[in-house]
Amino acid sequence: MDFYHINEEYNKFLQEYEKEKRGVTKVPNIKYTDCNKFAFGAVMQVNGMSYYVSVSSFDKKQEANILIRVPGDQKEVKGSLRFNYMVPVPEECIEKLVIKEIEDEKYRSLLNKEYQFCMDNAQRIQKKAEKIYDMVTTNRKQILTDNSCSFRILEAGYREYIEKYLRDDSEQA
Fold first, then answer.
1. Which residue in 62, 80, 84, 66 sits closest to 132, CA to CA?
2. At CB < 8 A and 24+ separation, what contacts does 159-162 make?
3. Could you tell me which of 15, 60, 63, 135 has the fewest CB atoms within 10 Å of its CB?
4. How far is Cα 28 from Cα 140, in angstroms, rounded to an integer?
5. Among candidates 3, 4, 113, which has minimal Cα distance to 69?
6. What counts of helices (H) and strands (E) characterise the chain?
7. How many Cβ atoms from other residues are within 10 Å of residue 73's Cβ?
8. What is the four-CA torsion angle of 38, 44, 45, 46, rounded to 10 degrees?
9. What pTM was estimated for this model as a whole?
10. Which helix (H) or strand (E) covers residue 89, if one does?
11. CB 47, CB 154: distance < 8 Å
12. Which residues, at least 6 apart from 37, have a Cβ–Cβ distance to it below 8 Å?
């Protein structure tokens, strides 16, 4: 497990795919002016698909997230992992975030702390991912389902993306 950047084109494809099938998308934007969003994963496997969960600056406890805490720091809560927004991503559409290459020392330090938290809590993270996936796909709580990515739709989008964009590339090579 590591931190990754998800390919922007793939992310946009998922957003559009979910919006077309559902009328709305909950796939988070990943492009920001200061720093692009990154994800932690793979937090779980479903039908051969790896799921990645966004690392967010959101710092309020909710049922579908795990707060990233660094005890002893002035601001203990650094952000959260938001499982209702996790997405399946093909290996070709992720790029490892190399923390030591980050030039901003404060940001690099924050990423190291967040990464250490994620590694220390890897089992808890995987269990939470599976629980939220199950709750959303079985619609156990309407409010959670409404405020989550439609994982089944995204899985269909994942398969379509591979078929349309990745298979063609490998066949042409």
1. 84
2. 160/17, 161/10, 161/13, 161/14, 161/17, 161/90, 161/93, 162/90
3. 60
4. 22
5. 113
6. 6, 6
7. 11
8. -100
9. 0.91
10. none
11. no
12. 28, 29, 30, 31, 54, 55, 56
What is the Cα gyration radius of the chain?
16
Per CATH, the number for 2-172 is: 3.10.129.130
Long-range contacts of 23-29 (CB under 8 A, 24+ apart): 25/149, 26/84, 26/85, 26/147, 26/148, 26/149, 26/150, 27/85, 27/87, 27/149, 27/154, 28/54, 28/56, 28/82, 28/85
Structure tokens at 10: 């793939």
The 3-state secondary structure of 38-74, one letter per residue: EEEEEEEEECCEEEEEEEECCCCCCCCEEEEECCCCC
With tokens 């964009």, the residue in question is: 165
Element of type H or E holding 79: strand 77-88
What's the pLDDT tens digit per position in 109-160?
999 999 999 999 999 999 999 999 999 999 999 999 999 999 999 999 999 9
50-66 average pLDDT score = 95
Q: Which two tokens stand for residue 47?
A: 């039908």
Distance of CA 38 to the CA centre of its chain: 7
| Secondary structure (3-state) at 90 | coil
